[in-house]
Amino acid sequence: MTPTLAPVPITADGVSKAFGAVQALADIHVHVGAGEFLSLIGPSGCGKTTLLKLIAGLLPADAGRIRVGGRTVAGPGRECSVVFQDFALLPWATVQKNVEFGLALRGMAAAERARTARLAIGKVGLSGFEDAYPSQLSGGMQQRVGLARALAVNPQVLLMDEPFASIDEQTRRLFQDDLLRLWSEERKTVVLVTHSMEEAVYMADRVVVLSPRPGRVHEVLDVPLPRPRESSDVRATAEFARLVDGVWKILRKLQ
Amino acid sequence: MVLALRGASIVAFLLLWEWAARAPVSFNFPSPWATVLALVDLVRSGALPAATLISLQSLLLGMGAAVVVGVPLGLLMGVVGPVGRVARVYLDLLIALPTAALIPLVILSVGINVASSAVIVFVFSAPFVTMNAYGGVRDVRPRLVEMARAFGASWGQLLTRIVLPSALPMILAGVRYALSRAFVGLIVAELLLSPFGLGRLIMTARSMFEHDRMFATVLWTLLMAGAALAGLARLEARLLRWRA
């Protein structure tokens, strides 16, 4: 088992991206500290997913520079794992094989791969489902597979694109708490794209609000709520309500 | 229910056949029973097993080549757009072409032997393998490609780990259809081109007015094709059990 690597910071410096005539992102400056949990929120079409894909190296930036740790992003790198909104699981592979996917691509030997994957499956609470196919699992469980696959390669950065958007409310809350617990144990740098104001506040150290067309950093909010939040009733506090309301007031003006 | 229907359809077919033999529909039309007797006789004499062995060579050679060439070609056509758009025209022509018309060409270039039957089998089956592999690439979800790329997948890894398994259901359906076409091609080739194997057995029996033996050989070919297709269907179910 490879040791957990220290988290790394992410810096976007004057990043722009256009799709044809549509300017998706313009002159984005964002810094995510090493081990920080950052939420990206904004009206639909503000380019938050595009920014995440730029950080992941899945899309090239038109201008500016993104650095992940010591590397300038020019393509997908080993520091980053991505969790997708629609899970992006291989329908023909079992849970075990899905979680092994990234490890297999990186050439890990079969026995070690199986062991590492089982460990990751245990972390997300899916032990016993190794031989199930994705179609046999609920949405929430499928996303747990997606998270296990992302964690199995031991990334320093976790990039999550609306990971809870297609999961029902109760499952989502449990999953959010599990993610926070995992994050406090493994200390990865996390960028979470979401359209839920509550989720953005509940999960993150800071919330970055993007404005639409072209996407720009409109405002950055600190979330000074104490941690661990997963074991306390943070959602019921006045402070939490005030912070969510703060995000809402900004977003309302942007619509 | 399915079993009962299946049984009933077989009985109905045999009754119809028996009626045709008694009617008589044509001169010397063999009854089912006479055909079975001829079949047993052909197997006992060793004529049928020997002919089957020869025909199977052509079939496996041609069909094997169709899969080995057709699947990669179809995938390439699907993955590299321009290749697909160019090759597609030839493929459409090949499918529309009355393949038997190629036989003189094959005789000229390959000669008359077991390999020339294999060539015909290949021409009959390969276009369908290729076409389905090509179509199967359309079933690849772009999101899965993106996911694999995020994990740093190389070109080859994308092809073997995402594209091929995504296209597999279509590919297997194509192979199954191509196999039935391969049997047609085999008999056509052996009747019209190279006097070997099962085709020759049919020809000889016909020229001697041994219609029961002719029917027996055709029946035998059908049984073989049926068995091969059933085997392929089982393989398909195994490989695609994730879809259950």
Describe this structure in words.
The complex is a heterodimer of chains A (255) and B (244). Chain A has 255 residues and is of the alpha/beta class. In chain A, 35% of the residues lie in helices and 24% in strands. In chain A, strand 4 (63-68) and strand 5 form a beta hairpin. The mean pLDDT of chain A is 93. Chain B is an all-alpha fold and 244 residues long. The mean pLDDT of chain B is 89. In chain B, helix 3 runs antiparallel to helix 8 and helix 7 (142-150) crosses helix 8 (155-192). The A-B interface holds A 56-58, 76-78, 80-82, 84, 86, 88, 90-93, 101-102, 104-106, 133, 135, 153 and B 141, 143-144, 146-153, 157, 161-162, 165, 168, 240, 242-243.
Short descriptors:
heterodimer, A: 255 residues, alpha/beta, Rossmann fold, six-stranded mixed beta sheet, 7 helices, 10 strands, B: 244 residues, mainly alpha, MetI-like fold, 10 helices
Summarize the structure.
The complex is a heterodimer of chains A (255) and B (244). Chain A is an alpha/beta fold.
- Based on secondary structure, the structural category of chain A is alpha/beta
Class derived from helix and strand content of chain B: mainly alpha
Output the radius of gyration of chain B. 22 Å
Chain pair sharing the greatest interface: A-B, 24 and 19 residues
Regions with little confidence, pLDDT below 50 for 5+ residues of chain A: none
Q: What's the layout of helices and strands?
A:
The complex is a heterodimer of chains A (255) and B (244).
Chain A: E1 10-19, E2 22-32, E3 37-41, H1 48-56, E4 63-68, E5 71-72, E6 80-83, H2 95-105, H3 110-123, H4 139-152, E7 157-161, H5 169-186, E8 189-193, H6 197-203, E9 206-211, E10 216-222, H7 238-254
Parallel strand pairs in A: 3-8, 3-9, 6-7, 7-8
Antiparallel strand pairs in A: 1-2, 1-4, 4-5, 9-10
Chain B: H1 2-22, H2 32-45, H3 47-79, H4 81-96, H5 103-110, H6 114-137, H7 142-150, H8 155-192, H9 197-207, H10 211-239
